[in-house]
Amino acid sequence: MKILAIDTSTFVSGVCIVEDGEVISELNINQARTHSETLLPMVKNALDYSHLTLDDMDAFAVGKGPGSFTGLRIGMTVIKTFNEVFNKKLISVSTLEAAANSVMEDSKILALIDARAERSFGARFERKNGKLIRLSEDDLFLSEDILDFLKNNPNYLICGEINEDLEELINESEIKINFYNNKILSRLAREIALISEDKFLREEFDEMTLAPNYVRKSQAEESRM
């Protein structure tokens, strides 16, 4: 089984191709430009390195968010376009689930992604006997609420992003946190691809209803309130 996964939910553009659980090609770029400028060339390079084509894939996978509004729209548009041409299975994966999936040790996990304006997207998971279990839905939290949670739940392992505001609050409170790996954003496409292999056999996805999980209102919508 071959799966091409892309992720554009954060400032990192990621493309990964896996075959039967093995990563055979992976590219990540920390963006100075927009995802729209780099994503398609990255896909082409990943395929060329693997000596494969889009038609060789059994499925296309994409990070559905939460994350950057513009990035999520770009990722969804690209993956749906691939599907229109090649008619493969489409799979979407939570960005926060992908971040949590990179944690290999058994533990309770709080996955975070910067949502700016003193907020973070977050969800709780648990890695137990090697299996990742979701404990809460993806949601949007104020930094103060995350700090209160960490004070009351010091056993949680943090992965993903800690934004500047939350980092400052943590430093001021002098609480000790367990942070897993600050390179996780560069692994999201890989984790999406690996999760999608399992989803491929267990779930059905309708490309007509495939949509980003924004969690919050866009800036344009907020401006109209």
Automatic annotation (TrEMBL):
Name of the gene encoding the protein in the UniProt record: tsaB
Pfam families for this protein: TsaD (PF00814)
Gene3D superfamilies (alphabetical): 3.30.420.40
Biological source species: Citroniella saccharovorans
Keywords: Acyltransferase, Transferase
GO MF terms held by the record: tRNA N(6)-L-threonylcarbamoyladenine synthase activity
Enzyme Commission code: 2.3.1.234
Keyword Transferase: yes
GO BP, sorted A to Z: tRNA threonylcarbamoyladenosine modification
Protein name: tRNA (Adenosine(37)-N6)-threonylcarbamoyltransferase complex dimerization subunit type 1 TsaB
InterPro entries named in the record: ATPase_NBD, Gcp-like_dom, T6A_TsaB
Residue intervals of the Gcp-like domain: 24-149
Lineage, broadest ranks: Bacteria, Bacillati, Bacillota, Tissierellia, Tissierellales
Superkingdom: Bacteria
Any one annotated GO CC term: cytosol
